[in-house]
């Protein structure tokens, strides 16, 4: 479980650095969408804290109220993280998409956005590398999907999936940012 914490701490640090980067860029560039993205990254940071809470609480010794222990706490908090990722994170993204289609912000200099994307790929990529190394170590010779299905610790693959989706999303954002500038399409 200690190495599981390592990948979670890696993701926590990466998401916190990304949030800080986006807040700074949003404040300097006076960009509401960048502030919204910073809030999204802050939600991702809270997700890692909740996973750590689940690991901590699952280690509690059995007591009179929980004679079999608190092992299920990890599953509960992993479920809450999933809800936050898809519900709150997705909800913010959909909201921002609708707002920017209805009222597009005028295109400005994309340099700061490219810097934020570059730093985000760097931070999130480092977290992904840590998660991949950890998952390879945990699964051993077991095929990838079988290891996911048979895992007793959802935090092992939750961070891996979250970081993979984040890195893929950053590349999609980079492509869309380029296309917005190239074809002068602020939506």
Could you name the key traits of this structure?
187 residues; mainly alpha; Alpha-lytic protease prodomain-like; 0% strand
Word description of this protein:
There is one protein chain. The chain is mainly α and 187 residues long. It has a single domain (2-182), classed as Alpha-lytic protease prodomain-like (Up-down Bundle), CATH 1.20.1510. The protein is 80% helix and 0% strand. It has 6 helices and no strands. It has helices spanning 2-29, 32-58, 73-102, 111-139, 144-150, 154-182. It starts with a helix and ends in a 5-residue tail after the last helix. The mean pLDDT is 83.
What is the structure about, briefly put?
It is a multi-pass membrane protein. The chain is mainly α and 187 residues long.
Estimate what percentage of residues fall within beta strands. under 5%
Secondary-structure element string: HHHHHH
Structural class: mainly alpha
Biggest β-sheet, characterized?
Answer: none
What is the general shape?
Answer: elongated
Number of helices: 6
Tell me the count of domains. Answer: 1
Rg of Cα set:
19 Å
The CATH architecture term is Up-down Bundle
Q: Within the CATH hierarchy, at the fold level, what is the topology?
A: Alpha-lytic protease prodomain-like
Q: Between the first and last Cα atoms, what is the distance in angstroms?
A: 44 Å
Relative helix content: over 70%
The overall strand count is: 0
GO biological process, one term: zinc ion transport
Transmembrane segments: 7-28, 74-95, 115-135, 156-180
Membrane topology: Multi-pass membrane protein
Subcellular location: Membrane
């Amino acid at each position: 479980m200690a190495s599981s914490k390592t990948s979670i701490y890696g993701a926590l640090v990466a998401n916190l650095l990304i949030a800080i980067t986006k807040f700074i860029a949003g404040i300097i560039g006076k960009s509401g969408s960048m502030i919204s993205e910073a809030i999204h990254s802050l939600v991702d940071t809270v997700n890692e804290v909740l996973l750590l809470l689940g690991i901590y609480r699952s280690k509690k010794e059995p007591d009179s109220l929980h004679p079999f222990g608190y092992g299920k706490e990890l599953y509960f908090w992993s479920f809450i993280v999933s809800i936050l990722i898809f519900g709150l994170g997705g909800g913010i993204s959909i909201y921002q998409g609708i707002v920017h289609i209805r009222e597009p912000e005028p295109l400005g200099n994309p340099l700061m956005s490219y810097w934020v994307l570059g730093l985000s790929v760097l931070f999130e990529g480092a977290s992904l590398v840590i998660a991949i190394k950890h998952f390879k170590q945990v699964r051993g010779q077991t095929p990838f999907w079988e290891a996911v299905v048979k895992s007793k610790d959802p935090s092992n693959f939750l961070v891996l999936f979250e970081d993979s989706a984040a890195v893929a999303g950053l590349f999609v954002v980079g492509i869309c940012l380029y296309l917005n500038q190239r074809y002068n399409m602020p939506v």
